[in-house]
Design goal:
This is Small integral membrane protein. The protein is an all-alpha fold. The chain contains 2 helices and no strands. It is flat and about 45 Å long. It has one domain.
């Protein structure tokens, strides 16, 4: 299955969740949903191989 077709739907779901959190939960709920959404985005990109976590954390390969 082509993964690029799902990104707009995932973005729509995330935007809806952030909107509901901001509308009904207040600013703190909005921030929690936004931070968790960003964390989920980073994990998803790392799982697909688009993001090198070792390079972000500064680990070096030892040979």
């Amino acid at each position: 299955m082509d993964e690029t077709r799902w990104w707009p739907m995932i973005g729509l779901a995330f935007g809806t969740a952030v909107g509901f959190a901001g509308a009904f939960g207040g600013f703190s709920a909005f921030l929690i949903v936004a931070v968790l959404g960003l964390l989920g985005l980073l994990v998803g990109r790392a799982m697909t191989g688009d993001l090198d976590v070792g390079a972000l954390l500064g680990s070096r390969r030892r040979s």
